[in-house]
């Protein structure tokens, strides 16, 4: 017991979490301009409505800034109101710990202008308030830049997605039927029990 | 009149429990108040001699034992009350082993249903738009219902028998599990978890049923294995539900539909187990309560007396508190651990489920081991050994809980969690090594109180540490460990006058087990002779003195004082 305890303690000290090498969000440059079709406060239905995203390189920055960009990944990210009291959506500066953007939209090869695509909100997107963010990756697959549809405080151009409930009429009916059956058989039990007792008394 | 009525119930067998010669000697020795039973046996002996039954001089006489032809109908060896004296795990013989298997399977099913939601929470929280507060409240709701229900279940078992009580409860909570599939908001989610949680009261019916069917030599093992294997459900569900969900999702349902369909599995399992108990189970070796009540073979005790003696015994309250910090902690971990691993270490749902399952699966051996360890310590050191072992094991559980919250890497975290689970579950088994000795008359209610205390501990712990976003989950776990250590200190205040406590030996006034257990009966009740089961029990409990059994003082005459 004591040896096991000592082993555990020594393993503990040697393995205390050290933050591995990772890119931080604050080190990224906002060099992409991203706009999306939903207006602020618009409600989209998951699985049905489309989003049109237009993106390009920010021309006001120096010309060679985007030389390392190889691919761009688009993600659906939670707005602060949907992160409240939900630690599993928390924003962290270290990107490999950051949980703000959990839904991938699409990955595109980088090109500096005239890019659009249309995306249908998938059926497993939960009900929440979102914005769209794009990360630019270099050839080593590390994030080097980003762009987003909202401002730095994440207050503008936020849209809502209404998820599917997952309920179906057949499920509802099955639940109610089985429940009713359980309650009815309970009364059946009591009735049977009374009958058995009467029979043994009559004997 | 009196001898002939008893004559009808008296059977002659080669086996016996009390030699009539011993009783006659006692009858001669002791004073008026305590000898009702001995006197009546003396009269029977005289009447039988008068009836010229010669063979009685070679055989011995016992109460209620059946003739040889009746005894042969049990597959297991039984004692005079028809309770099995052996525990054969791989037999399904009626009524003893069959009842054992039915009761642990249905308790297992109830655990699976109650903790079916936690492993799927990463999906459910997105579907129903739950906040951390909602999830915390649902976890609290799941364990709070049974806190009261467990006490009520003890009474229900007394009145209706464990078979009807547990099958009724299991069946009435099944609709809550079916309706989890149609929950559509945080409020409805909390409600279904609340009603599903009532099914955890089947713990009391399991322990009660085992105590009715197994003799004191094996009741500890039967209770420990039934309790432990039922608790296994809390671990198994963390494996079963993600698997079922994956299967349904791969067949083609979307995530938000797949989790709903998955809930039908535990619901059906629970319904079927209730049917099994009703049709295949039997309350007592001789029949079911309803039949025995009508035929007058079973005596009903006075509920208010039983209740009074349960709540005025401080030891029951202390054990209820400490059980809250071993079993309550187990329930809390069942609720939070899958989400903890999913969120902190970024494993997928399936993996988080497997890790979480290994916590509950340790119940396969650790809770029975706790019960067995309690019995081993009692053989050498008596009740004091049981108390010390409980305190040490539970405190070690608290220490490993503190580590669990501090560890930051996945592998070490899993290892610490498993060690922690073994200690915490063994402490549960050790607690129920002590509970049967707290009270004999009110055993049902004391067991229910202790069991209910476990749930109260789970509620308290989740309210303080795991609700909302005040503490991160890892901080909550560490603080819970500190609370375990502090609350386990009260074990030091348990004191049995006849055996002692952790720091004190037995009372300097000569006190016996009979004094302690007989103080639960008043003289009017003793006149009617209904205290005899307690008398028998106090004789058997002399083994709690440890190695000092040989020097045991015999009961002396005079009115025993009441020990509270």
Automatic annotation (TrEMBL), chain A:
<keyword id="KW-1133">Transmembrane helix</keyword>
<dbReference type="GO" id="GO:0015706">
    <property type="term" value="P:nitrate transmembrane transport"/>
</dbReference>
<dbReference type="InterPro" id="IPR016605">
    <property type="entry name" value="Transptr_NO3_Nar2"/>
</dbReference>
<feature type="transmembrane region" description="Helical">
    <location>
        <begin position="173"/>
        <end position="192"/>
    </location>
</feature>
<dbReference type="Pfam" id="PF16974">
    <property type="entry name" value="NAR2"/>
</dbReference>
<keyword id="KW-0472">Membrane</keyword>
<comment type="function">
    <text>Involved in nitrate transport.</text>
</comment>
<comment type="similarity">
    <text>Belongs to the NAR2 family.</text>
</comment>
<feature type="signal peptide">
    <location>
        <begin position="1"/>
        <end position="22"/>
    </location>
</feature>
<protein>
    <recommendedName>
        <fullName>High-affinity nitrate transporter</fullName>
    </recommendedName>
</protein>
<dbReference type="GO" id="GO:0005886">
    <property type="term" value="C:plasma membrane"/>
</dbReference>
<dbReference type="GO" id="GO:0010167">
    <property type="term" value="P:response to nitrate"/>
</dbReference>
<dbReference type="GO" id="GO:0042128">
    <property type="term" value="P:nitrate assimilation"/>
</dbReference>
<keyword id="KW-0812">Transmembrane</keyword>
<keyword id="KW-1003">Cell membrane</keyword>
<keyword id="KW-0732">Signal</keyword>
<keyword id="KW-0534">Nitrate assimilation</keyword>
UniProtKB/TrEMBL annotation, chain B:
<dbReference type="InterPro" id="IPR011701">
    <property type="entry name" value="MFS"/>
</dbReference>
<comment type="similarity">
    <text>Belongs to the major facilitator superfamily. Phosphate:H(+) symporter (TC 2.A.1.9) family.</text>
</comment>
<dbReference type="GO" id="GO:0042128">
    <property type="term" value="P:nitrate assimilation"/>
</dbReference>
<feature type="domain" description="Major facilitator superfamily (MFS) profile">
    <location>
        <begin position="99"/>
        <end position="500"/>
    </location>
</feature>
<protein>
    <submittedName>
        <fullName>High affinity nitrate transporter 2.5</fullName>
    </submittedName>
</protein>
<comment type="similarity">
    <text>Belongs to the major facilitator superfamily. Nitrate/nitrite porter (TC 2.A.1.8) family.</text>
</comment>
<feature type="transmembrane region" description="Helical">
    <location>
        <begin position="164"/>
        <end position="183"/>
    </location>
</feature>
<dbReference type="GO" id="GO:0012505">
    <property type="term" value="C:endomembrane system"/>
</dbReference>
<feature type="transmembrane region" description="Helical">
    <location>
        <begin position="411"/>
        <end position="435"/>
    </location>
</feature>
<feature type="transmembrane region" description="Helical">
    <location>
        <begin position="190"/>
        <end position="209"/>
    </location>
</feature>
<dbReference type="GO" id="GO:0016020">
    <property type="term" value="C:membrane"/>
</dbReference>
<dbReference type="InterPro" id="IPR036259">
    <property type="entry name" value="MFS_trans_sf"/>
</dbReference>
<feature type="transmembrane region" description="Helical">
    <location>
        <begin position="229"/>
        <end position="249"/>
    </location>
</feature>
<feature type="compositionally biased region" description="Basic and acidic residues">
    <location>
        <begin position="539"/>
        <end position="550"/>
    </location>
</feature>
<feature type="transmembrane region" description="Helical">
    <location>
        <begin position="442"/>
        <end position="465"/>
    </location>
</feature>
<dbReference type="InterPro" id="IPR020846">
    <property type="entry name" value="MFS_dom"/>
</dbReference>
<keyword id="KW-1133">Transmembrane helix</keyword>
<keyword id="KW-0812">Transmembrane</keyword>
<feature type="transmembrane region" description="Helical">
    <location>
        <begin position="387"/>
        <end position="405"/>
    </location>
</feature>
<keyword id="KW-0534">Nitrate assimilation</keyword>
<dbReference type="Pfam" id="PF07690">
    <property type="entry name" value="MFS_1"/>
</dbReference>
<feature type="transmembrane region" description="Helical">
    <location>
        <begin position="99"/>
        <end position="121"/>
    </location>
</feature>
């Amino acid at each position: 017991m004591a040896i096991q305890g000592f082993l555990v303690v020594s393993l503990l000290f040697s393995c205390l979490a050290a933050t591995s090498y990772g890119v931080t969000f604050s080190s990224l440059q906002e060099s992409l301009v991203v706009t999306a079709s939903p207006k602020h406060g618009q409600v989209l239905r998951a699985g049905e409505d489309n989003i049109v995203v237009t993106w390009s390189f920010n021309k006001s920055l120096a010309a060679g800034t985007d030389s390392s960009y190889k691919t761009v990944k688009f993600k659906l990210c939670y707005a602060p109101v949907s992160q409240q009291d939900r630690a599993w959506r928390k924003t962290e500066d270290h990107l490999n710990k950051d949980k703000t953007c959990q839904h991938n939209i699409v990955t595109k090869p980088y090109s500096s202008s005239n890019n659009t695509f249309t995306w249908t909100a998938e059926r497993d997107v939960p009900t929440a308030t979102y914005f769209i963010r794009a990360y630019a990756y270099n050839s080593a697959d590390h994030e080097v830049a980003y762009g987003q549809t909202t401002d730095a405080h994440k207050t503008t151009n936020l849209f809502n997605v209404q998820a599917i409930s997952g309920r179906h009429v057949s499920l509802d009916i099955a639940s109610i039927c089985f429940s009713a059956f359980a309650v009815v058989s309970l009364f059946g039990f009591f009735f049977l029990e009374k009958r058995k007792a009467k029979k043994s008394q009559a004997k | 009149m009196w001898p002939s009525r008893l004559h009808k119930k008296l059977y002659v067998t080669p086996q016996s429990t009390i030699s009539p010669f011993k009783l006659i000697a006692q009858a001669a020795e002791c004073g008026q108040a305590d000898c009702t039973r001995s006197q009546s046996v003396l009269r029977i002996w005289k009447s039988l001699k008068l009836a010229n039954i010669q063979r009685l001089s070679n055989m011995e006489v016992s109460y209620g034992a059946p003739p040889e032809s009746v005894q042969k109908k049990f597959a297991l060896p039984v004692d005079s009350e028809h309770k099995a004296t052996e525990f054969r795990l791989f037999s399904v013989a009626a009524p003893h082993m069959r009842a054992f298997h039915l009761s642990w399977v249905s308790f297992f099913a109830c655990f699976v249903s109650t903790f079916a939601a936690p492993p799927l929470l990463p999906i459910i929280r997105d579907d129903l738009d739950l906040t951390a507060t909602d999830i915390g409240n649902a976890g609290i709701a799941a364990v709070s219902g049974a806190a009261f229900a467990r006490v009520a279940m003890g009474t229900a078992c007394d009145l209706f028998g464990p078979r009807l009580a547990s099958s009724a409860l299991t069946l009435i909570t099944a609709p809550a599990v079916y309706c989890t599939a149609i929950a559509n908001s945080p409020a409805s989610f909390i409600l279904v978890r609340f009603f599903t949680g009532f099914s955890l009261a089947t713990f009391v019916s399991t322990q009660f049923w085992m105590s009715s069917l197994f003799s004191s030599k094996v009741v500890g093992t039967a209770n420990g294995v039934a309790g432990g294997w039922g608790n296994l459900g809390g671990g198994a569900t963390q494996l079963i539900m993600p698997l079922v969900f994956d299967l349904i999702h791969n067949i083609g349902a979307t995530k938000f539909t797949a989790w709903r369909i998955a809930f039908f599995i535990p619901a059906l399992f629970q319904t079927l187990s209730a049917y099994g108990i009703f049709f295949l189970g039997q309350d007592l070796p001789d029949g079911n309560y309803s039949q025995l009540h009508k035929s007058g073979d079973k005596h009903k005790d006075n509920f208010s007396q039983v209740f009074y003696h349960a709540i005025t015994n401080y030891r029951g309250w202390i054990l209820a508190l400490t059980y809250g910090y071993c079993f309550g902690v187990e329930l809390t971990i069942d609720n939070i651990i899958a989400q903890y691993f999913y969120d902190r270490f970024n494993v997928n749902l399936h993996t988080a489920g497997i890790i979480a399952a290994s916590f509950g699966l340790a119940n396969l051996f650790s809770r029975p081991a706790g019960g067995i360890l309690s019995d081993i310590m009692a053989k050498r050191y008596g009740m004091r050994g049981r108390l010390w072992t409980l305190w040490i094991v539970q405190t070690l559980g608290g220490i490993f809980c503190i580590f669990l919250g501090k560890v930051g890497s996945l592998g070490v975290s899993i290892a610490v969690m498993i060690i922690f689970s073994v200690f915490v579950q063994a402490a549960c088994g050790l607690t129920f090594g002590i509970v049967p000795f707290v009270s004999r008359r009110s055993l049902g209610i004391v067991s229910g109180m202790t069991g209910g205390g476990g749930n109260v501990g789970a509620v308290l712990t989740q309210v303080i540490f795991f609700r909302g976003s005040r503490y991160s989950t890892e901080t909550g776990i560490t603080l819970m460990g500190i609370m375990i250590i502090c609350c386990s200190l009260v074990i030091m205040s348990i004191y049995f006058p006849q055996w002692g406590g952790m720091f004190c030996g037995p009372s300097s006034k000569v006190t016996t087990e009979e004094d302690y257990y007989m103080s639960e009966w008043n003289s009017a009740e003793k006149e009617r002779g209904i205290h005899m089961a307690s008398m028998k029990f106090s004789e058997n409990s002399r083994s709690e003195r440890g190695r000092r059994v040989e020097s045991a003082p015999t009961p002396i005459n005079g009115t025993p004082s009441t020990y509270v």
